[in-house]
Design brief:
The complex is a heterotetramer, with 2 copies of chain A (411 residues) and 2 copies of chain C (154 residues). Chain A is α/β, with parallel strands linked by helices and 411 residues long. Chain A has helices at residues 10-14, 42-55, 65-85, 99-111, 133-142, 159-165, 188-197, 217-220, 245-250, 285-301, 303-322, 349-357, 371-376, 393-409; strands at residues 23-24, 27-28, 30-31, 93-96, 120-124, 145-149, 170-176, 202-205, 224-228, 239-243, 261-264, 269-271, 327-330, 339-344, 361-362, 364-366, 382-386. Chain A folds into 2 domains: 10-41 and 302-410, Aspartate Aminotransferase, domain 1; 47-299, Type I PLP-dependent aspartate aminotransferase-like (Major domain) (Aspartate Aminotransferase, domain 2, 3-Layer(aba) Sandwich), CATH 3.40.640. Chain A is built from 14 helices and 17 strands. The longest helix of chain A has 21 residues, at 65-85. In chain C, strands 3-2-1-4 form a 4-stranded mixed beta sheet, with helices on one face. In chain C, helix 2 (14-21) packs across helix 3 (70-83), helix 3 (70-83) packs parallel to helix 5 (127-145) and helix 4 runs antiparallel to helix 5. Chain C has one domain (3-152): Sufe protein. Chain: A. The chains are: A alpha/beta (411), C alpha+beta (154). The complex binds pyridoxal-5'-phosphate (2 copies).
Amino acid sequence: MGAPVRTIAAADWRADFPALNQSVHGQPLVYLDSAASAQQPGAVIDAVARYQREDHANVHRGVHTLSQRATEAYEGARDKVREFINAGSRTEVVLTSGTTEAINLVAQSFCRPRLAPGDKILITHLEHHANIVPWQLVCEQTGAELVVAPINDKGEVELDRMLELIDDKVFLIGIAHVANALGTVCPLDEVIEQARQRGIPVLVDGAQGVPHLDVDVQALGCDFYAFSGHKMFGPTGTGVLYGREELLESMPPWQGGGDMILEVSFEKTIYNELPYKFEAGTPNISGVVGLGAAIDYLQAIGMANIASYEQELHDYMVAELQKVEGIRLIGEARHKASAQSFLLDDIHSHDLGTILDHQGVAIRTGHHCAMPLMQRFGLSGTARASLAFYNNRDDVDRLVAALGKAKEIFA
Amino acid sequence: MGAPVRTIAAADWRADFPALNQSVHGQPLVYLDSAASAQQPGAVIDAVARYQREDHANVHRGVHTLSQRATEAYEGARDKVREFINAGSRTEVVLTSGTTEAINLVAQSFCRPRLAPGDKILITHLEHHANIVPWQLVCEQTGAELVVAPINDKGEVELDRMLELIDDKVFLIGIAHVANALGTVCPLDEVIEQARQRGIPVLVDGAQGVPHLDVDVQALGCDFYAFSGHKMFGPTGTGVLYGREELLESMPPWQGGGDMILEVSFEKTIYNELPYKFEAGTPNISGVVGLGAAIDYLQAIGMANIASYEQELHDYMVAELQKVEGIRLIGEARHKASAQSFLLDDIHSHDLGTILDHQGVAIRTGHHCAMPLMQRFGLSGTARASLAFYNNRDDVDRLVAALGKAKEIFA
Amino acid sequence: MTATARDMQDLYRELVLDHSRNPRHFGRLEDATHTADGINPLCGDKLRLYLRVDDAGNIESSSFEGSGCAISVASASLLTDAVTGLPVEQARRCCATVAERLAGDESAELASNLEKLRALDGVRQYPSRIKCATLAWHALRSALNHDAVPATTE
Amino acid sequence: MTATARDMQDLYRELVLDHSRNPRHFGRLEDATHTADGINPLCGDKLRLYLRVDDAGNIESSSFEGSGCAISVASASLLTDAVTGLPVEQARRCCATVAERLAGDESAELASNLEKLRALDGVRQYPSRIKCATLAWHALRSALNHDAVPATTE
Ligand SMILES: Cc1ncc(COP(=O)(O)O)c(C=O)c1O
Ligand SMILES: Cc1ncc(COP(=O)(O)O)c(C=O)c1O
């Protein structure tokens, strides 16, 4: 469990992140794009480099010392993940290349063999493409139907209407923990509660949940929870699919190769136990070692501390942005985390991005891999500032000042 | 093209690899397990760390400076891969998490939608599980049949019999460039020539080819070529599927998510162009940057130099091993690269591995993810020493001396 | 004026802002003989270009519609100004010249009809924005080639 | 004698080498009442354990067949020596004791029938080999539980 909640100056943490200590276009960098990918603390960068300098070998099948060390490092990281999200068992922690692969795995291995025409996959209107396209593909392959729960003008899931859509034809529900484009925190408890009553599995896209909230998959009661290492201050090419053991057991392997089998002959192949059944081939060993180091780093601060620090900073950002003349906030849900989308006057978000970058302020612009959401708001894109615990009020002030400059240029 | 062939002391190169400069059980490490996973030069380790310290952000969709730098680094590495294997175009270079994913991609996206009962996939008896199980899975899914070309007692593909098996029912041929367990270099030219005459696509599993040979996919004339970064001195979690553009164009996407689409709506999704259509989600950016650095490193030495240096060392290793009383070499193909499998007296390979490790000599023992091959030889496993260009004659001498100690203990 | 503002005004020159706010030849061209879509997936710019080519092979008129950033809209607007009246072959050459110029090739001299495109020179310092500036020109080439798939800038 | 040889002789003690070369109770047990497979996927060790349990719940006889490294074969051979004649419940407890002992728990005292298993203490320094030493004991537990799936050591 995390450390007790305390108030700490973000500067303490910021200094741990080498990439934040640089200038861009002659200005100290203000990094407000963590929702796309987060920076890494030096501890993670060093853990990966140290692993490569001292311990690297292939895992699982080696009797020699380096292979043994590599296996311990890799499997040790799995244990850290288990503890971090409070999974019941390490067999429920499947290591993947990212959220996207994790969701595709569920679509192809859990859903594809069982879906029939008339079945439905239910998602919401604010999902990232990673929680849309895999379902579109499997619906096309099986004749099932993709059903979309609506959102309101604030960017909140319309809970009542979503609950109404949960009928016996729904085979699986996919829902974001936190929406990447708008920062909306979704009503997981209510959706999961209703789904459970009908025995419908729920996959939570936790890519934006894990970096900002204290996640406990058993308390949530979800069946699958997917997230990415690179959004939680770890390496790219790493990710996790948490799955309830009973469901994972029932699924055929997705990819074939080394490590996911116990025994291969041309006549018959016996698959390995969980979680290895779903980890074909040499895994991203150094990346997973880095992911373990990221978890150590986060645990030392405590996710509850991070969540409360960020909440305060998010509120400050929203308040400051609202003071900017000509701004239009997109996404005004009651519960939000990290991200805030907006438009300024009639300046195209892409132009805004360039002008802010020129002042050292990095934001993301465009559709944020959530085109249906953009269509819902009649937009082709937004500007989005997203926070991590290494940001502070100065960063927000710099953002606001930079918006002022943009207005000048487009005056 | 590589530098002109010259003779260089491997010591020059060895010093570039930090992990090799350590002791294990009090003895200087002799690393003879590169076929499982290779060590990285400092240049690769540093490139990854530098990228994380200075340039990291998500790729492709960002307008700000870091995102721009990350995109250039990532796409720049793709260009290096293209040049390294002489692909015709960067659109033919799909970045994957490894050989295993690359082969699964072809099985699922190229084969699955087109295979019908009665069709055949032809492989050989010396394949790695990564070039067996994906075909078993897709055969099960489609009713196609997996056909296996035999090998002889030396561990060579029986070419005549393989060519006979290439009939019009063969939909695709999967064959290793170099067999990982035995080191056999396969007769690609003849197989590809025959396959082309009948218009049958050939996938080459190049996991053990690329680290040791000068690979030119256009000269080979294969349709797909798959390999892993971690076996060519780059990071784990990276790999490449080279595919001829015409074939890649004809294939539906495999995984869904961000980056592999141009436009998403709930009604209709337009997939992105090659190679992005096959790269769903945030890629392993830092890993690919490291892969690019590995290629730079290899190009500076020249693959032709590496191949000729290793050939000489391999011959020396075989000659020295043959002098050991009680040894039985497994794999005596005329053309070999890197690996040599063997048995010593009736010492189980696992025990041998421990005894050698205790003397600082790291080899691999067991089935090497090639169980059908082991069955072919009536073995449950072998000991395998595999070379890279950072090994030298001293390493071989230490191996031979360590085998002597093993004989003493089991005397 | 700060350095930032100055640099930025080099990118967002008066002419660019003017063309982006008041794009010329904006809208659908009835009885177009050539048309093509341009998509910049990175930032969501989307435009459709229309041309009417007469029997002699001259571009009689041109127009575009769609939405995008200031740079892509201004570039499309400048394009329609520049190519209207040109023989097809000359318009094709313009695509190449502009692409080279925006990619930073100083030797790519701009013919008089392309003079105003100098206003876009500022993008050269912003690699991610070059694609915005060239989008319309890619679409022009597609239109002239009667390509079926949308031009993209990747 | 070199340090290496000494350390290695701590792992490969005479007793271990003897049991691995001349495994006791090797072969199929006809009229077995309990049987289980053990697989160590990491190194290819594979064995099948047979037990005949009488009506009073005592292990009347036991045997094993299969192939594996010296450690796993010796451990299986020692197992059959140790559990033959034991009541089932006591054999079950042995599985736990041996597992703890091999995992390095010094306090896991070995009853007299398990005395000889001290010979395997050397594996504790070789984490990858502990699985070899425990494989047969995992299979024993599976057999007593009548598990359908092979015991593995992961
Ligand atoms: C010949 C061969 N093919 C495929 C693979 C699988 O590569 P990876 O585990 O990197 O996906 C290997 C590596 O073990 C190999 O040696
Ligand atoms: C909510 C959400 N889901 C899924 C993803 C996909 O994650 P990745 O690209 O790491 O696979 C992202 C990240 O872009 C995201 O924000």
